[in-house]
Design brief:
- The protein is α/β, with parallel strands linked by helices.
- It has helices at about 15-25, 45-55, 70-85, 115-130, 155-160, 170, 185-205, 235-240, 250-265, 290-310; strands spanning about 5-10, 35-40, 60-65, 90-95, 135-145, 210-220, 275, 280.
- It has an eight-stranded mixed β-sheet, sandwiched between helices.
Length: about 300
């Protein structure tokens, strides 16, 4: 097995991210990576770092509000400095786990972008872009995907329309109007961000070095997690009830699977945005492969990130 080196994970403080972090820390000596925990500074980040250290892992906390691209750039600079100083082992994996689903698509990030798109997609594009030259091969980038990018069973059950792709500059623009768009609109925004992640994964693989493998992990639907904390109480109550249905995914079950994607030899060969649903390599729907959209997404992402940087 290759030295696990250092794994960076965003969103490590709760649910899927927390259980992935603890699963990595529970690995035996020689298989346990150093961990860079990138998340909002505060009690939750400190708590998971302390719990992880108690299990024997080398841990660094990097406070970062992923809705602020300036914070993301600062976090990447911190990572580069730690690597350059030899304070952590070589960077072998980045797990882009953090995510949100804003209940109101009019809500903008501090940089002026629709919040769901900003956190789920743009923040990770910024972080990965800033660290692409800092990996030591063989290395992995694991992005968090979702089957909601197409009209699957759960979308139909919850009455969420299928996502309709638009130019990424439009996807990044907050909704307008006085009336809140509602949960259907927020669900579409989330799905569009997840479709963008699939397109990004394909294009990133074309542009990354030969020693960096890009894959996408779908943890299964986990109703009742903090992802939907902005939803109306009735929706949250239904999600909690569904979360007790046998066979539905939970952070406790899916967290170790995400850790495996970053570390296990079983997944070392995955490239080109290979899509894994829990433990099964799965072919994505045809809509998730589009060279023109992937190229345009990369161009637009560069434009959006540069615009945010220039406004600081």
């Amino acid at each position: 097995m290759t030295d696990p080196g250092t794994v960076l994970i965003t969103g490590p403080t709760r649910n899927l991210g927390r259980h992935a972090v603890l699963a990595m820390a529970d690995r035996p000596d020689g298989q346990r990576p150093d961990l860079l925990l990138v998340g909002r500074a505060g009690r939750d980040l400190t708590a998971v770092a302390e719990e992880t250290r108690a299990r024997g892992a080398g841990v660094r906390e990097i406070g970062c509000d992923l809705s602020r691209l300036a914070d993301v750039r600062a976090a990447a600079a911190t990572v580069r400095a730690l690597l350059a100083a030899g304070d952590v082992r070589p960077l072998r994996a980045l797990v882009a786990n953090a995510g949100t689903m804003s209940a109101d698509t009019r809500r903008a990030s501090p940089d002026g972008y629709e919040l769901t798109f900003a956190v789920n997609y743009l923040a990770h594009a910024q972080l990965i872009g800033d660290l692409l030259g800092s990996f030591t091969a063989p290395a992995r980038v694991v992005l968090l995907g979702s089957n909601t990018y197409h009209a699957n069973f759960w979308r139909r059950l919850l009455g969420v329309p299928e996502a309709e792709w638009a130019d990424p500059v439009e996807l990044a623009r907050p909704a307008t109007g006085e009336q809140a768009p509602g949960m259907a609109a927020s669900g579409v925004a989330y799905s569009k961000a997840k479709l963008a992640i699939l397109y990004y994964a394909h294009e990133l693989q074309r542009r990354a070095g030969a020693g960096i493998n890009v894959s996408v992990f779908e943890p299964g639907w986990m109703p009742g997690t903090a992802l939907g904390r902005g939803a109306p109480e009735a929706v949250q109550a239904m999600s909690r009830a569904l979360g007790r249905v046998p066979g539905v995914s939970t952070p406790q079950r899916s967290g170790p699977l995400l850790a495996a994607m970053a570390l296990d030899d079983k997944w070392a060969h995955l490239r080109e945005g290979a899509f894994v649903v829990k433990t099964k390599l799965t072919e994505v729907q045809p809509v998730a492969h589009d060279r023109d959209r992937e190229r345009r997404l990369w161009e637009a992402t560069t434009e959006l990130l540069e615009r945010a940087g220039a406004s600081r």
